[in-house]
Amino acid sequence: MLKVGELAARAGLTVRTLHHYDSIKLLSPSARSDAGYRLYDRDDVARLQQIQALRAFGMALADIGAYLDSPDASPLAIVERQLSGLERQIAEAAHMREQLLRLRSKLAAGEETDLSIWLTTLEQMTMYEKHFSKEELARLPLYQNRAAQAEWQELVRHAQSLIERGVPPTSSEAGSFAERWLACLERDSGGNPAFILRLTVMTGQDPEAQKEFGLTPAVLDYMRTAIAEVRFAIYARYLPLAAIERMRRHEASHSDEWIVLATQVHACREADPEAQSLKAQELARRWFMMFTDMVGDDPEVVSQFRLAASSEPLLHLGTGIGDEVLAFLRKAMAGMAMQPRKA
C-alpha cells in the first residue's frame, strides 16, 4: 500500500490535492496506518486513474464522483476514451510532421522557401500553445478537430455577412445565430468553462487566432452585442425593465473586466481549491462588487436574477463561469465572513 506522499509523487499530484479528494469523498484511502497515515491500495489507485482521466476530459469533480459511484461507470469506457484522445494527438502530430518534412525537403534541396510556409509552420506551433498546455490541448476538441475549425471559419463569414447586410445585432436573426455560435463554443470547448474563457481570450486578443479564423474587431463587437441581447431577452422574463437597463449599462462598461476577473478566479481555484488564501478572498470581494454594480442590491431583483441563472441553461453558455467557479467564490466569501473584525 502507498502512503499519501508516495501516491502523490507517483501520480504527479500534490498531497494537498489528495487530501482535497478525501475531504469531498471523491477518493478516500482504504486504510490508515497505526500512526494515522492514509494508505492507498490497488483499487484506490485505479480509481485515481479514472478520476484524473475524467478531469482531463473536462468533467467537474462533483460530476466525476456521481459518475464513478453510478452503475454506469466503466473503467473500460474511460480507457477507450483516453485512447481516442491519444489518437487525435497522434493525428495532429502527424499533420505537423508532414509540414516539417515539406519544409525540410525544400531546405535540403537548397530551394527558396517563401514566407507562407514558415508562417504556416509557426502558426501551427504557437497559436494554441500560448493559451493551453500540451495536456489541455489533448482534451480541447477545437484543437483536435479540423472540421470544427473549418466550421468556425464559416461562422465568422456568416457573421460578416450579417454585418454587411445591415442586420442589427438586436434582431431575431442575429439572436438565432448567436445561439448557434454559443452552442458551437460549448461543443468545441468540451463544455469546460476554463477552456471557454481561454478561447474567448485567444480569439479576442491574439492576432494569429483572429487571422486563422478571419475574425475582425467588427465581427467580435457584433457577436458580443448579439450574445448579450440574447441574454438580456431571457433576463427580461424575470427582471423589471429598470434592472435590464442597468445590466445593459454595466455590460457596455465592464464586459472586458469580467473576462479578466473570471480568468484570475480560474487560476486561483487551480492553486487554492479550498479558497483559503487572501487572493481568493480578494477576488471574491471584487466579484461581489461587480455583481452589485451589474444587478444592484434590491433583494427581490437579486433573487429573480439567481432564479433566471439557475433555470435558463442558455445564460451560462459561453461565459466561462461554471458551478465550480461559483462554489469556489462562495467558499471564499464564507472565509471572509468568519474572519474576526478589527477593532
First-last Cα distance: 51 Å
* Strand adjacency order, main sheet: 1-3-2
Low-confidence stretches: none
Given the C-alpha coordinates, what overall shape results? flat
Q: Approximately what portion of the residues adopt beta-strand conformation?
A: under 5%
Q: How would you state the average pLDDT, rounded?
A: 83
Number of helices: 17
Relative helix content:
over 70%
- Count the strands? 3
Order of helices and strands: EHHEEHHHHHHHHHHHHHHH
- Structural class, from helix and strand content? mainly alpha
Largest sheet: 3 strands, antiparallel
Whole-number total of structural domains: 4
Rg over C-alpha atoms, rounded to the nearest angstrom = 23 Å
Can you describe this structure?
With 343 residues, the protein is mostly helical. It folds into 4 domains: 2-68, Multidrug-efflux Transporter Regulator, Chain: A, Domain 2 (Orthogonal Bundle); 75-126, no CATH class; 131-191 and 208-235, no CATH class; 237-343, no CATH class. The protein has helices at residues 4-11, 15-23, 42-56, 61-68, 75-108, 115-126, 134-137, 141-144, 146-164, 172-188, 193-205, 207-213, 217-235, 241-271, 278-295, 299-311, 323-338; strands at residues 2-3, 31-32, 38-40. Strands 1-3-2 form a 3-stranded antiparallel sheet. Helix 3 packs across helix 4 (61-68) and helix 15 packs across helix 17. The protein is flat.
